[in-house]
TrEMBL record:
SUPFAM superfamilies for this protein: NAD(P)-binding Rossmann-fold domains (SSF51735)
TM spans (from-to): none
Protein name: NmrA family NAD(P)-binding protein
Residues covered by the NmrA-like domain: 2-226
Organism: Streptomyces wedmorensis
Pfam family, one: NmrA
Length: 274
């Protein structure tokens, strides 16, 4: 049975492909640019296609039993607008099972999935631990992270845990009709995460909280557009309590506790060393 993984070269998708192959599943990897799809196992079938252009997906869906579908596309993570067309094509192609990487909101795609007649499961990672790699350069260069809103807390999930959840559902079924919110085992502040990275690297790394005006000046100096600066300030100032909520999804689906941020930091320590 062939499983199609969309976004197969991304942070999550590459791990999903790896998990499925390790479990002995046949995998077809969808990417916009197959020629640039490096790092995937040699026995994975790589096909071209664009989720925003459903007419490019017919060959990718042919003979597929299950699909992992991105709920958002592009660098701006815009919600996928072609869900109804993709669901119709998947049903016609004989797809039976579906996991959807959810953006945590109910929209046109989510409704199309619910109406599709397929065995579906939404998977919503609260936040990826790998987002901390955005600090890697500044930590290597200055051993300091400077950001506003130091008290915001998120129960970030290790991307490999999320991949384990997705691969387990795709390969083995179960959890149909559910929205699985995937978290790590604890809610941490940015300073907590920086402390874990410091412990993992054996370096002294500081976290400095910035007031809004200093954050604006810093981000302008780094070349951020004004709309991006204001968006980030609004987002961090209004972080909902739900993103600090620890869930049992990893243990329910995979049968083990989720990995801690300290474990993630230890596995990625070299990225933060000079």
């Amino acid at each position: 049975m062939t499983i199609l993984v969309t976004g197969a070269t991304g942070t999550l998708g590459s791990h999903v492909v790896e998990r499925l192959r390790h479990a002995g599943q046949m995998v077809r990897a969808l990417t916009r640019t197959p020629a640039e799809a490096t790092g995937l196992p040699d026995d994975v079938e790589v096909v071209g296609g664009d989720l925003t252009k459903p007419q490019t997906l017919a060959a990718a869906l042919d003979g597929v039993f299950a699909v992992h579908l991105l709920g958002a596309t592009g660098h701006d993570h815009a919600p996928l607008r072609t869900g109804p067309q993709i669901m119709a094509m998947a049903a016609e192609a004989g797809v039976r099972r579906l996991t959807v990487l959810s953006v945590g909101e109910e929209g046109e795609l989510e409704q199309a999935v619910r109406d599709s007649g397929l065995e579906w499961t939404f998977v919503w990672p609260i936040d990826f631990m790998s987002n901390a790699l955005g600090w890697a350069e500044v930590i290597r260069d200055t051993a300091e992270v400077r950001e506003p809103y130091a008290n915001r807390r998120t129960a970030s999930a290790d991307e490999t845990d999320v991949a384990d959840v997705v691969a387990t559902v795709l390969a083995g079924g179960g959890h149909a009709g559910r929205s699985l919110i995937v978290s790590g085992p604890e809610a941490l502040t940015p300073a907590d995460k920086v402390s874990a990275i410091a412990a993992a690297t054996g370096r002294e790394i500081r976290f400095a909280e910035l007031p809004d005006d200093q954050a604006r000046r810093q981000w302008r100096a780094e070349g951020w557009p004004e709309e991006g600066i204001e968006f980030m300030l609004r987002m961090w100032a209004t972080v909902p309590e739900t993103v600090a909520r620890v869930t049992s999804a990893v243990e329910e689906v995979v049968g083990r506790p989720p990995r801690t941020f300290a474990q993630w930091a230890a596995a990625h320590a070299d990225a933060f060393r000079p």
